[in-house]
Amino acid sequence: MEHIVIIGNGISGITAARHIRKLSDKKITIISAESDYFFSRTALMYVYMGHMKFEHTQPYENWFWKKNRLNLVNGYVSKVDTTNKKLILQSEEEIGYDKLIIATGSKSNKFGWPGQDLKGVQGLYSKQDLELLEANAPNNEVCKRAVIVGGGLIGIELAEMLRSRDIPVTFLVRESSFWNGVLPQGESQMINEHILEHHIDLKLDTNLKEIIPDENGRAKAVVTDKGETIQCTVVGLTAGVTPNIDFLKGSGIETGKGVKVNNFLETNIKDVFAIGDCAEQHEAIGNRRPVEAVWYTGRMMGEALAQTICGNKMAYNPGHWFNSAKFLDIEYQTYGWVFSERSKTDYEQHFHWRHSKEKICVTIAFHKDTQQFLGINTFGIRMRHEILDRWLTEKRSIAYVLEYLKDANFDPEFYAQYEENIVAHYNSLYGTGIAPRKKSWKRIFSNI
Amino acid sequence: MQIIKKIGLFVFLIGLTIFTILPFVGEFKLTPASLDQIIQEKGISSEIFIQGMEENVVDEEFQGMFTLSPQIAQILETANAQHRKDKEYKKVIYTGAHDMAAAVGKASGSGFIVENKGLMWFLTFGFGILGSLLFIIPNIVLLGNKGIKNNGIYHENATNRGWIAWMVFVFLVSFYLVLYFRSEYAVNWTYLVDPISEFLSGNPAGHWFVYGFMYCTVMTVMAVRMYIKYRHNMYQMVRTTSVLFFQIVFAFLIPEIMVRLQMPYYDFKNAFPLDYDFFFQWNLKSLLNSGGIGLFILVWGIVLTLVIVPVMVYFFGKRWYCSWVCGCGGLAETLGDPYRQHSSKSLFSWKVERWLVHGVLVFAVAMTLMTLYSFFTETGTVLGLKTQSVQNTYSLLIGAFFAGVIGTGFYPIFGNRVWCRFGCPLAAYLGFVQRFKSRFRITTNGGQCISCGNCSTYCEQGIDVRAYAQKGENIIRSSCVGCGICSAVCPRGVLKLENGPLKGRINPTEILLGNDVDLMDLVNKK
C-alpha cells in the first residue's frame, strides 16, 4: 500500500489528506509538532478574546482521525532524505514515505530588528504564539502597553485581541495609510478611522528601529524611525509571513522564497510535493503572487493535489480570486481584482461609494475602455460568492453588475439595502441611467 | 458606568434575595368563613377533613408555610385513609396535599406581605427589573461600537460554567420544582401579583399566574439586553420583538382577558403537540361546553397543527414558530442567550437528540390517539393501558420535568435549548417538514468559510454548522430553529438564512467554489 506522508496539519495538509482518503485506500500519515489535531489557525484570535475555547477551533472531533485511518504523528521533522525516501524526526525516529507532501505553512517575518528575539517580542501565527501571548499579555496589569509592528491582517487582529482585554495598543504602520498596498485609498482611509474608533494608537508612516531590553532581557520599549520611544511590555511582530521551510536545507528540494513547485504542485524531486503557504509557484498564476499565504488557496491546492496523487493528474488552477477578512467590526470581502493605487494598471478604473454615516463602502474596479467588470471590494456588505464568480467568468460590464447588484447581496434578512444609493451615485458620477433590478431567485439559481 | 452596573447588580440581588426568602416566611390564619369557601369550591364532603381543619387549623396562627403545609397534608391523608377503609369513596378528596395546602394558604395569608402587596411587588419584581436594567443598559456605552460582542464569554464565570452558572442552575431547578410540585410555597409570590391578576382576569393570582407574569418580565428585561447586544443586526432586533410580542399578548394577556369574558383560558399560538393536553378529555369537554368560542378554539387548534404550522414551515422554515412565536423559544432566546454556547456539538449528542426528540413525539401522538379513542368510545383503557395513567406519566415526565425543570433549569450548563432540541414534540414535527419540504435553508457562501467555528460554538441547537459551511454545503437540518446567530457571528459573511426555491437547496459538494471550474464539475457531478 502506498504510503503518503504529509508534513503539516494545517488546512492544506488536512484537505489533501481528507481528499486522498475519499479517493483511495492509501496509507496516510500526518506529522505536526504544533498540535495533536487539526485546528483553524484563523480562529486563534477568538480563543484569546474569549469567544471560544481552543477545542472549538478544531473542525473535527478527535475520533475522526482514527475512523478515517489518518495516522497522526506529533513530531518535528528535522531532515528530509529524498534519496532513501525517509524523514528524520527530531526524536531521531525515521518515517519512510512513498510520496511526500510538504505543507508546513509559514512563520512570522523578522527583518533583523535589534531586539527582535527579546522576551515579550512575538508574532501571531501558531498555537504556541497564542499560548505565549496569553503568558505575555494576560491582562492590562501585566501588559501595560503593546506595540504592534506591521499594518496587515494579522496586525489588526492582534490589536483587536489586545483591546478586548483593555490593553493599550500602539500600532506602527509603515505605509501612509492602513494596508494601502492592497486597499484603494477610500477603503484604507475608512479603516484608519475605524482603528482610531477602537482607541488604538495608530502611527502611520512609522517604522520600528529597535526594541530596547530591560535588565532581565525583556522588551521594555521600542524606538521608531521618527525618534520616538514608546514604553511597552509586549511587542507584536506582524510584518507578514514567510514560508516555513528551513528544515529542507540540504535535502535537494529546490527552494526559493518557498518550496518551488510547478502547476502540478510537484517539486524538482519526484514524489515530493508542496502545497499551501510554503509552496512557491515557478510562475505566478494570473495576477496571483507566487507564494499565496491564504486559507482558501491552501485548501484548493490540497483539493487539486489529492486528485494528482490518486492518479487523476490535475494542475492547480484556481478560479477567480476571492478573499475576506474582518477589520475589528467591519467585514471585508473581495472578488476578482481591485488593486490599490500603488499597484493598479492604467486601464483599471475604480468606482467608489461610501455611506455617509456608517462604516460601509464599496469599490468596483472596471476596465476604463471596455467597461468590463474586474472586481469588487465590499466593507460592511456581504456579497454572494457564486454570483460574483459567475459575473467575472461571463466578463460582464460594470453597468450590468450595478443593474443586477441586488442579486449579489448576501446580508442577513431585514438589513438596510444600499444598492439604490450605490447605483444613484454611479449614475450621478458617469451620467448614466442605470436602474437596479429587483432580486431574482431565478437568476441566482440559473446555473443549477 | 461600571459603578452603575455594580449598583444594578446589588439592587437585583436584593430583589432576588427577598423573592427567595418569601416561600419561607409569612403568617397564615384561616378563618371559618374561608374554610367554608374552600369546602364549597372543592366540593368537599369529608367530615373528618373538615373536623380536622376546624380543630387544628382554623383560627390558629401559622408562621411560614413549612408549619402549615405538613399539618394540612396530615389531615388530608388521615381523612382519605379513613374513607378508603370505610369504602366511602365519594368522600375521598382527590385534590393533592400540595394543591390543598396552596388553596388553604392562599385563603389564609395575613400580615405584612398580604397587607403590602404593592410594596412587596416593588421589593421583589421592582428591584429585580430595576437592578437588571441598571446592569444591562450601561452596555450601550461599555460594549463600544456596534458589532459582535462575545468578548470574554469563555473567561466569565457566569457564562463558562463557573460557580455562578451552577448557582443559577440550582436556583432555576428549585424554582421549577416548587412551581410544579410544591405550589404551596409559591403562595406568598402570588400575593405580589394579585393586583395585576385582578386587574386582568378579575381573579386573584395562582402560582401559574406568577409564572406567566415572571416569564414576561424576564423576557422583556432580557430582550433589552438582546437589543443592545445585537443592535447592528436587524434580523435579531425584529425577531426579538416578535417573540416578545407573542409571549406578552398571546400567551399572557389574551388568555387572562378571555377568562374575564367567561371564555376558556387559551393560548392561540400554543400548537399541539407542544400543547399536549389539548385533546385531553377535560379540555375537550370544557371547549364543547363553551359555546361558539369553544368550538372556534377546537377548530383553530386542529387547523393550527395540521395546516398552518406545516404550511408556514414550508414557506419560512420552522423558525417562524420556534424563534419568532413560541414561548419556550422566546425564553431561550432572551434569558437563555448568554448560555447558547453550551449546547454540545458532538456526533454523540446528535444521535441522542434524534432518539429522544422523536421518541417524545411518538409518545405524544400515541397518548393522544389513546385519549381520543377513550373519549369517543368512553372507555378508560386502551390495549390494557389506562389512558389516565399514560397522560399522568406524560404530564409528569415530559410536561413538568423535561419541559420545565430540565428545559429551563439546565440553561446555564447545557445551553438554552435543551427542551427544544431534545424534547419538544412540536419541534420534531416541524423538523420533518423543514428537512424534507421547505424553502428555508442557511446558504453557505461559496468557498468563503475559514472553519473558525464561531457558528458551531454559538449554535444553540448544537448543530455543527461549520461542518457544512467548510464543505460549501447549505445547512439543511431539521433541528435548526433559525435564530440567525450563526450568520451574525460569522466573521467572513458566509452564512445567510433565506427562503428560496427548493431546487438547489440541498447542495452536497466535494470541491468548493473558487477552485478550477473543471475540477469542481468533475468532482461534484460524479
From TrEMBL, chain A:
What cofactors does the UniProt entry give for this protein? FAD
Q: Which InterPro entries match?
A: FAD-bd_OxRdtase (IPR050260), FAD/NAD-bd_sf (IPR036188), FAD/NAD-binding_dom (IPR023753)
Query: Mind listing the UniProt keywords for this protein, alphabetically?
Result: FAD, Flavoprotein
- Give the matching Pfam families: Pyr_redox_2
Protein name, as recorded: Pyridine nucleotide-disulphide oxidoreductase
Annotated TM spans: none
Family stated for the protein in its record? Belongs to the FAD-dependent oxidoreductase family.
> Does the record bear Nucleus in its keywords?
no
Output one GO MF annotation: oxidoreductase activity
- The residue ranges of the FAD/NAD(P)-binding domain are 3-284
UniProtKB/TrEMBL annotation, chain B:
**Tagged with keyword Transmembrane:** yes
Membrane-traversing stretches: 7-26, 119-142, 163-181, 208-228, 240-259, 293-316, 355-376, 396-414
Give one GO molecular function term.
metal ion binding
Query: Residue limits of the 4Fe-4S ferredoxin-type domain?
Result: 440-468, 471-500
Tell me the keywords, alphabetical order. Answer: 4Fe-4S, Electron transport, Iron, Iron-sulfur, Membrane, Metal-binding, Transmembrane, Transmembrane helix, Transport
The protein's matches in Pfam families, at most eight in alphabetical order, are given as:
Fer4_5 (PF12801), Fer4_7 (PF12838)
Gene3D superfamilies, per database record: 3.30.70.20
Q: Which GO terms describe its cellular component?
A: plasma membrane
The record's listing under InterPro entries reads: 4Fe4S_Fe-S-bd, 4Fe4S_Fe_S_CS, Electron_Trans/Redox
Q: What is this protein called?
A: 4Fe-4S binding domain-containing protein
